[in-house]
Fold this protein.
Amino acid sequence: MTKKRKLKLKSSARKPLVIISAVVVVIIIILAFYFNRIGELKNLGYSEEAAKSIIFKFKYSYIMDIGENKTLNAAFESDVYIEDNLDNYAKVDYENQKHLIRNINKLLDKGYSVNEVNLIISKGDDKSVSEFTKRDKVKYIEEFLSIDFAKLENLDRYVEYQDKENDDAETTVLYVNMDFDKEDYVDPLVIDDFDDYVLVNKHRQLSSEYVPDDLVKIKDEYVKTDEDVEIERNVAKAFYDMAEAASKDGMELMVSSGYRSYKDQEEITNTYLELYGQNYVDNYVAKPGFSEHQTAMSLDIASKSVNTFVESDEYTWMMDNAYKYGFILRYPRSKEDITGYKCEAWHYRYVGKKIAKYIKENNITYDEYYVMFLDD
Ligand SMILES: [Zn+2]
């Protein structure tokens, strides 16, 4: 009897135990499967958050076929993900913009093609793209924004400038980015922080706060003026290299001016204004903050023996060789329309060997180079 009862008890307890065990095993298998897939997605470059969302939206196979895609990662992390846009997300190049997915949704909704969405997003930043999505559909996206250095924020200016000037799209983008559609000295960009590659011209002004941090004195033997000449350390080094090479060719290079502070330039402008009048100053003298000499990256080159530099052999030598040492003639005669300055045969800007070579070989100005390659 006792035995029987015992057995009965056992058999009635076994059933739930088996079910519980089975459930536990199934849960373990599902979890193992789940974590395995999360791991695979993470290995592909998806975040934990995106990986979870991919699995819950049943897009695991879709993603495994596509592989790594940062825009898709952002889409699955986002709370504005739209299933219908999935294929398009995959085709938009990723940009690190806070509202990337929201903006892609809005642009697609306005009827822009994926290619147009790509151009708009790659040529703008989060703020300008977000603003742009508020507008009605705009024309000429591909015409202008397919140019490498185009900027979304300048799109209306491109359209307006081309209407007026009838230049091709690339020239239009270049000239508008150089602010050719604005008056000289009106509403310039003001620059505070020192930067070796800074561009200064009639649309880009250095503030009185803009002071180079590593000035050195040019050795007296190279200075053709009574005053000390200061310049940025690397520029001095490059100048000495250049002067040494020049001397092997029988040339005697010197400098007559280097760094000039905002205040120096103020005094110079006033002096010339009194001596020669406004017209002269407008054509030949940079207003305070508009002189490249304030960057400490520019030198006025002189010949030791000949006072008028253009008549010296050093002038010809510099035209042929300066780029090898990282210097460019900043205001050439053939580029007066671009630089906005009358030719200054003596004024050289240090930009480093690589950029100097490119500028020399392609016969362009630093203004153009900067807009095409350095401006962001
Ligand atoms: Zn100069």
Remarks:
- The longest strand covers residues 298-303.
- The longest helix spans residues 2-43.
- Residues 257, 293, 298, 300, 344, 347 surround zinc ion (CB under 6 Å).
- The mean pLDDT is 92.
